[in-house]
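Weekly structure sync - notes
Attendees: PM, LS, DV (DV joined late)
Agenda: review two folding runs queued last week.

Item 1: First target. Sequence and structure tokens pasted below for the record.
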Amino acid sequence: MKSRQSFLRFLGLDGFFPLASRVKRVFLRWRLLPGQAFALGSTNPCGSRSIAESFLLRFALAGIKGAVVFLLVSALSRLADSFDFKTRRRRRWRKGWGGGSHRGGGTLRWVVRLSGLCSAAMVMVLLAPSLQSFPPAEAIRSSQYLRFPSGGYDHRLAASAIETKGFSFRQAPWFYNAADCEPPSANGSSVCDSSLVHVAITLDEEYLRGSIAVVHSVLTHAQCPESVFFHFLVSELGLESVVRSAFPGLRFKVYHFDPDRVRWLISTSVRQALDQPLNYARNYLADILERCVSRVIYLDSDLVVVDDISKLWRKGLGSRAVGAPEYCHANFTKYFTDRFWSNKRLAATFSGRRPCYFNTGVMVLDLVRWRRGGYTRRIERWMVVQKRGARSGGAGRIYELGSLPPFLLVFAGQVAPIEHRWNLHGLGGDNVNGSCRNLHPGPVSLLHWSGKGKPWSRLDSNQPCPLDHLWAPYDLYGFAAI
């Protein structure tokens, strides 16, 4: 212990470490109790960090960087003085025995000091980026969990792809759990934590703006946003970094969905947008996500959540594998062709159940029951039937609408019903004709712009529908105002 103190005293650091220890305790207190150690007037009920708190964090990080540089310069200066002391002793010894003076010690002293300053400058340059991008304690770096094909994930290629695509999103405020939220378990940093709410969303270039808005809306209205874990399914590079820059503290993982896995099963539909392989990724969530994830909420990229997502998470599914709002007043027969209904064997698919339309853009999935029932293979079998019919010139098709009909064939009439407030769909209307939809009477928890029109397109063209302005507050696209 004494030798350690002597060494610190030699370096001039004996008074620094007690101060650093106290600063560390204060910093950890602020990280663990956000909004309490620095109560600076933030009124956001979800606990988003105020501007003053963000300034203090940057100030603290700058102080840490300065302290590190100070330590290095101090240590190198001490070492230089030590070399200088030995040089002076050697010079005095030569004076006493050989006469004359020796000026090499002074030169050596300045060389050592100059090299020390250069070393300190180099260390500062190397450490500056890492200190400025110090990650939050709760954040999970999704790059550790990326599942891309052989060859791995090239971050330089991803960054280049982002710059080429020209994506620019403002950083969202930080969100923290309310005081009455359940504290994270000992396994809190793992995707297998039983206290987490799991949400799955696809990411692609065309709908990236909408996906970012979905995440923003979920976090804004969640009572316990730190307990929400996002699973992003992608088929292209670069989008992970966009998400991390917009939501630095977000807990998420990114999974690569191979388009070839489903491309051979897809037959062309009435809308080309419905033929994209990523639209079918929801069929494979039970295969893609970790086995410890027993339930997940799937959300489309053209919606916003305006209620606490945990309310949807807690919906009971009974013995069903899928829960969703059902719309039994809709004309169910229009989702399939005349060939389907004229074939007694095919039409008998719905015998013994009361099939109702449901929108697959908002679903609660019990992945344990899904795996047990082999529902992915069942959906694929219907896609094979459709593909074979399409090869006969189109007369053999059994449906026209892409990824929805296979879900209806497997699950219609066997869905755990959820209140309609959780999917007010159809708000997209027809973008070509400029048709606008109105809200249905009653409470609303989720607004869904399904259909051809998307709110960001109409807002950008200065031809928005009235309800598009409800989507706009969650849009992070563009540069932050200065």
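Item 2: Second target, run right after the first with the same settings.
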Amino acid sequence: MAREQRRALLELLQRPGNAQCADCGAPDPDWASYTLGVFICLSCSGIHRNIPQVSKVKSVRLDTWEEPQVEFMALHGNDAARAAYESQVPSFHYRPTFSDCHLLREQWIRAKYERQEFTNPERQEPYSAGYREGFLWKRGRDNGQFLSRKFVLTEREGALKYFNRNDAKEPKAIMKIEHLNATFQPAKIGHPHGLQITYLRDNSTRNIFTYHEDGKEMVHWFNALRAARFHYLQVAFPGASDTDLVPKLTRNYLKEGYMEKTGPKQTEGFRKRWFTMDDRRLMYFKDPLDAFARGEVFIGSRESGYTVLDRLPPSTQGHHWPHGITIVTPERRFLLACETESEQRAWLDAFRKVVDRPMLPQEYAGKGRRGWSGDSQRPCGRAKGGRLSLFQWKPTSSINPNLGTVLEVRGGGGWTVEACGRRERLLAPGLMGALDTARWSLSLATGTFSVAPHCGPARPGL
């Protein structure tokens, strides 16, 4: 009898939807909740064990199953459970995967089955109301101490603020939603609920490290930030679909860790630094919890002259770690060294994923100056005949770093535009996505697009 039940369960695993964990998407789940009717992975089964009033779990292969339990699993399954428990998940709400931290997966499971937030929209108020106020532990920029600070998120003002004192009338910092990112960093921050918030300050990325003792509260803050970003982007890009917007709400870093680096002359000694790969930006810090990066470099695509080598030049000296990496850009080479071969492979994989990916038009606009530093280039130009076209910078290796090839989005019947005294080739709007075209149109309409006969370090309006 037990063998027949096990065979029936294994057959159920072959049904559509059951071959991945119902909660995190991990392949080949071999556990199940026989009270919820879902197949789950080992990691998520541990979370289910902590809510026994809702979920009771068994191993598909190792435990003994009773016939009614197997019949219950046959009547339900992962697809049916998603239809029941995820019927009203907001588009902005983060759906964790098996690669996400324990906190995100735990609170996702509790939100679905224990609190049933996605079948009762009124229970989503803590992160969907457009306003949130509370206290988080924040790390001091200079002394490194975590102190309780009041945070206020207001969608109406498009900002997240924090205050140094409870009775303070003016915030210590105002973080604009349009430039804000949040990512959980429990290991780096040293707390299981650690959240890293980044925003632009004077064209530099400012890091803020926070946590809350209550994991549910911290995840509510995270999803409230995503909701604010989502609603901002909906207004900014009315023609964009939710599918276009959701990937832009928050992003995780591609890779972080220690490497050694040398200076631009490549004759200085190598120094150990903490590196963060944030999409196409490679930043380095003296300490992982530094408020600002010591420098950063933009990594473009292979067709733009970027490549990555798994070695250092033969004449290189001064590095203590043996596993070298050379990042080749159109302007110079960046020399790095890893402590272990496995770390070298991991960094090479991260770099090559970026280099092998063609650049999008808006990524040309976000490219900074060459070197371990740099602000973004400001889109700039003149319009003749009282009309204006929108364009972006595409730096190339064949011209002066202060110039660039203009990619233009034309309106009406088209017109002539000069950028920095040069006429350049055009890019038809059809080659850009609707989201990118809307981005530039909004910048012009709101006055955040800079028009000038020269180039200067700044960022475009969005």
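Discussion on item 2: Residues 103 and 172 are 29 Å apart (CA to CA).
Action: LS to circulate a short write-up before next sync.
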